[in-house]
Amino acid sequence: MQHPAAFENLSREDRRFAPTEEFAEAANVTAAAYAEASADNLAFWAKQAERLTWAEPFTQTLDWSTAPFAKWFVGGTLNVAVNCLDRHVAAGLGDRVAYYFEGEPGDTRVITYSQLTDSVCQAANVLTSLGVKAGDRVAIYMPMIPETVIAMLACARLGAIHTVVFGGFSADALKTRILDCDATVVITADGGFRKGSVSPMKPTVDAALLGCPAVRSVLVVNRAGNDVDWMPGRDVWWHESVEAASPVHAAEAFDSEHPLYVMYTSGTTGNPKGILHTSGGYLTGCSFTQWEVFDLKPETDVYWTAADIGWVTGHSYIVYGPLSNATTSVLYEGTPDSPHQGRWWEIVDKYQVTTLYCAPTAIRAFMKWGHETLANYSLESLRLIGSVGEPINPEAYMWYREHVGHNRVPVVDTWWQTETGSIMISPLPGVTHGKPGAAMKALPGIVADVVDDDGVSVPNGTGGYLVITEPWPSMLRTIWGDDQRYVETYWSKFPGTYFAGDGAKRDDDGDIWLLGRVDDVMNVSGHRLSTTEIESALVSNPKVAEAAVVGAADALTGQAVVAFVILRSEAGDGGPHVVHELRMHVANQIGKIAQPRQIMIVAELPKTRSGKIMRRLLRDVAENRPVGDVTTLADTSVMTTIAAGISTGM
Ligand code: ATP
Ligand code: MG
Predict the structure, then answer these.
(1) I need a labelling partner for 51 at 20 to 30 A (CA). Which of 76, 286, 383, 618 fits?
(2) Mutation test residue for ligand 1: of 309, 364, 390, 467, the one with most atoms within 8 Å of CB
């Protein structure tokens, strides 16, 4: 009997991919880790915290006495920047490369751990001279360049709280974030490079600061050479200050719960929330999971998270995870198709990248462009590839596995959130027999469940709400300045349990599949349908490049499925026969109940800067409402294009 709260379990998947024997034998983590963690979760995490160098050891692993406000590694003190830099230099790794930086125009820099340490000390000295003290907030609005990492670590070194804002956001979005966390200093650049031209940034900061009287200093990196206005007394050039400062800086140790940063969520479902992460627990989480999920071999790997630093994935897997593990990483400034569609593969080939971590939106773009381009480069150095940010459609997973992984390397589909700080549900690459489209199992130390409306675990083969039932070290500590919203958003639907806001199902083997956001779930004639499954069915048709599905009010069925579809170039512009074919395709793949009432062929979909589809805006279109808040869209003109295309019957 189907519980009324459960999502219909629509799709089936029989394909499974085991790691090679060679990979499994050399893997960092074996199946024993699951048993070890479930025997004593706190002891498991206390052991992982030993990866870090503590100035004062902690005396209690977790204080949950004022739940849901957690304190991890109580009594311990550490400096996050020292853990990412100084200790590696002290251990003789100063000459190891921290970053291979690849600028969009083709400029490159190789930065070692010694050099990065010196630069961070210099920047810390300058921030101190600008009056920045522990606990102060510093906003960082930068392109993807080494100075962004240096700025973050300089803050961490001083115990100042950074808030990195996507370099593509508008003055208004920047202003809102600066005001929300009361930042007093902004670090920016004159401009960055994007798709072959200069995109100015300082003017955006200047405009934002008209509304931010508390900001007293702006530190400006000279990156793109564009002309900028200058406010003497407020504005300071990076190259005149940081590069001239002393590289000697004695770091102070801070409490394990000292705040490290505030990161605003992407705003896919509503207003962004200022998520607060602290020091010891967060660093333990990203350090351990990077080593575990990516099977990190720091001596030999060249690791590349192809994401923006202005997104949590960049914080945890470009900066804090990799540096705390003394990893060599690639840092790439630009977009995947500048100056040509082979740019990523050229970078993999050039730096002999071993590990690539990116979003399904990028994979779907490569599928659209065609796999022929990849054949021009050697991808033989890759030994593991990962995906994050949205459910990966089985079709996209198979393409990634075949054309990037050459059917040879494990694929890890990693589920997590800004709030969780680090990866929560993912295959273990040396253990799991992966299924295309499934995040599989909670990692050792993480306790996840799928529950119905009453908070009761659903049986295998059923869908429901994804929850995390035990606290974990890298969990958010609160929403900045709004403890009550923290409790209401995450801990009130099922008291005592973390509510992620995502739908999920357990398949017949008990493995976890993400079904999309609970806010996006459709209810058609009493059947609760997942956006993800219908989108994946559409994407499995060779004519379709991308699809987004929403539920729109319907007099007959309560809600009806409305699909927005981007066709592959070879499919033409999509006449009525294509729409008919796609409706039949969905009916065949998963059943008549999931058949879209309407399919709109569009040229683009509204996405956040982190590549997530903003279904709430499409719902506005499908229900003929004015579209809501678009400030976190990568390209705000997309909605106008879609609305125009639809009214002209495109
Ligand atoms: P907001 O909370 O402001 O609406 P957001 O949820 O998009 O924004 P993020 O924290 O960047 O902000 O994204 C986390 C969400 O991304 C998850 O809740 C989930 O919906 C989705 N997600 C991330 N990774 C995966 C994955 N591997 N599979 C499925 N969904 C994923
Ligand atoms: Mg969210």
Answers:
(1) 383
(2) 390
216 Cβ neighbours under 8 A, 6+ residues apart: 130, 131, 184, 185, 234
Q: Which atom of ligand 1 is nearest to the CA of 272?
A: 3
pLDDT tens column, 513-538: 999 999 888 989 888 898 999 999 99
Is the distance from CB of 429 to CB of 295 less than 8 angstroms?
yes
Domain that holds residue 156: 109-249
Which CATH number does the domain housing residue 601 bear?
3.30.300.30
From start to end of 14-88, where are the E strands?
A: 60-63, 71-74, 77-78
Residue of 266, 440, 450, 535 to test ligand 1 pocket, by largest number of atoms within 8 Å of CB = 266
467-494 residue pLDDT tens: 999 999 999 999 999 999 999 999 999 9
The answer to whether the complex's ipTM is over 0.95 is yes
Q: How many domains is the chain built from?
A: 2
Gap from CA of 268 to ligand 1 centroid (Å): 8
End-to-end C-alpha distance for the chain, whole angstroms: 43
| Ligand 1 pocket, residue 360 CB under 6 Å | no
Question: Looking at the domain assignment, is residue 596 inside a domain?
Answer: yes
Inter-residue contact 457 to 449 (CB < 8 Å)? yes
Residue 439 near ligand 1, beta carbon < 6 Å: yes
- Ligand in nearest proximity to the CA of 518: 1
